[in-house]
Each structure stands twice: as C-alpha cells, then as structure tokens.
Inverse folding.
C-alpha cells in the first residue's frame, strides 16, 4: 500500500494587519473554483478577493469580466481564513472593512500582492498596507 510521505501546498499567510474588522455575511464558497492540488486536496487560501454570484448566492472569485457568474465583477470582500474544501463546500467569511496586508492578498489565478486599483476603489473600507 503506498503511503504519502510529503505534502506540498501553498503557505497559509496572515492577511489581517489589525484585530479590528467587519465581516460580510457568511456564505458558501463555490468549490468549482478551488482546484485540486498535487496532494488531491482543495484549499481556499486566505487573501482571495471574492465576489458574490447572484444566481447561486455563493461566494466566487472576483473577476472584472464576471467570468464566475453574474455579480462576480464586483468585489465584496476578502477571505481571511484558509478552508479545506476537499470533501465539500464550506461556509466562508470575508472582511469588507479592515486593514489588510496587500502582499498576502490575491485575485483568483493571480500572484499574491497584485491587487488592481479598481478593486481597491471598490473595497474602499479596506486599508491596504
């Protein structure tokens, strides 16, 4: 029987720069957008900018072109916790009013620390440090 002896996954980084924050209403995150890693696990990492898919009522990645459903072209919050979605969708909570470490935040499919000006303008109650 083969045993797994090593694990490879992205590092979980802290995105909150301050203990003072307000959260958006908790909702399920659409697991479709959480790809399997080399270990066969599905992790939603902290720092992802999220939109709200109006058709499903679930969080999905933000996309300026609404690629992940109607409404995902508007960023509503940033995920602050890692969630293991290997065995199913989890309820995620994002912040819309906080001080966040920009270097640890990202857009789906992008590199950490690359938050566009349009997102910063839309999430005006977030202070990026």
């Amino acid at each position: 029987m083969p045993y797994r002896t090593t694990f490879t996954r992205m590092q979980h980084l802290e995105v909150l720069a301050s203990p003072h924050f307000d959260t958006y209403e908790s909702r399920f995150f659409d697991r479709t957008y959480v790809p399997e890693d080399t270990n066969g696990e599905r992790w939603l990492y902290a720092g992802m900018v999220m939109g709200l898919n109006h058709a499903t009522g679930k969080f999905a990645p933000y996309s300026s072109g609404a690629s992940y459903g109607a409404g995902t072209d508007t960023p509503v919050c940033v995920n602050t916790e890692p969630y293991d979605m290997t065995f199913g969708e989890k309820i995620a909570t994002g912040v819309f009013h906080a001080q966040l470490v920009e270097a640890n935040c990202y857009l789906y499919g992008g590199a950490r620390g690359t938050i566009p000006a349009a997102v910063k303008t839309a999430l005006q109650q977030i202070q990026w440090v």
Notes: The chain has one helix and ten strands. Residues 23-128 form one domain. Strands lie at 22-23, 27-28, 43-44, 49-52, 59-61, 77-79, 83-84, 91-92, 94-100, 126-128. The chain has one domain: 23-128.
